[in-house]
Fold Mce-associated membrane protein.
Amino acid sequence: MTAEGGPASLQGAAAPRSRSWGFIAAAGLLGLLAAVLAVLTVVAYLRLRELRESESAAAEALAAARAYAPDMLSYDYRTIEADLARAKGYATGDLADHYGELSRVLVPVVRREQTVQQAAVVAAAVEAATPERVQVLLFMNMGTSKLVPGEKQPQRQVLHNRARFVLIRGQEHWLVSELSTLIGNAPGG
């Protein structure tokens, strides 16, 4: 017995046990914290890598869209079949099929009206990007010349248009899978 009246063996044993449980709990908590930090580090690294790949894809697809747009949206009645075939070469999926359909429908009208359309990209920006798919908004000047029935001189017109290209990564280069034109004057234009 001790001076306070308690058994000596019980007091001496209780203090080391509570310290060992505290040490085990602290070590377990630190181990859990280290595991969580490791997982967060891996997730952050993967997200950073995807972000860098998306930025690279955006730059590549933006350059491709700027280069493809004049070819895909311009044509001349004297070379309409070759123009549509060239445009179809930049397309994939339903859009490529659509260019095939345009050959059947558009060629007679373009030849009859002797239409020449020239598209020039004046600005472009990426709207959304992943490593495999990029959406690009293009601002263009569209110059059109066509012979209107009953007129001796061709009618000439220049419009400010917008187009949205959705490009997907092909095996060798970017391809346009969706094309939508937003015809009309730009706001404030």
Summary: The longest helix spans residues 8-73. Confidence is low (pLDDT under 50) at residues 184-189. Helices lie at 8-73, 80-89, 93-113.
